[in-house]
Amino acid sequence: MYVAELMFKVISDTEFSLAEQAIRRYIEALIFNGQVLGREFPTAWQQDRFTSRLVLPAEDALLQKYHSKRGLTALHQLSEAGLAFPQWQQLGIDLMSPHSSPNQRPEFYILYSRFSDTCSPVYYALYSGSSKDCRNENNKLCPGCGAKWRLSAPLHELFDFKCDKCRLLSNIAWDCQSPS
What we know:
CATH class of the largest domain: Alpha Beta
Largest sheet: 4 strands, antiparallel
Structural class: alpha+beta
């Protein structure tokens, strides 16, 4: 994990609330796409710019080639709020994050659980940030077994899908959710 600083220079007259909303929209798109870790991004106003501190999963995680459609849209909306495209600086390896060998890029990760010790089922949450077909998003099937898994009401106000057989949870893709 790496710590980076993202700087949004003010390039035209703007309102503080518009700039804040645009920055939030952009960074949340990066979070939903897996380019930024965590849900908090401390942001400070510094004379002519806003600066945010982020934790990244990889050194190059902020490159535009990894942005989702939502991320690219939010990036271009920054200028509408009077902000320049963000500049970023990597500050170094995050000392508070768990580390593996920096010379190896794992092909996969294994999730270990302690189900046998707790006798509580452990579910794996499949985060869904975007979808190619929003019309059929509500009716998608469990990717593990192909069964119907849509819940009648969201679980913990977050998960719209649950498969007890596969122990999977998921949400309706953020791109397909109506604004609340």
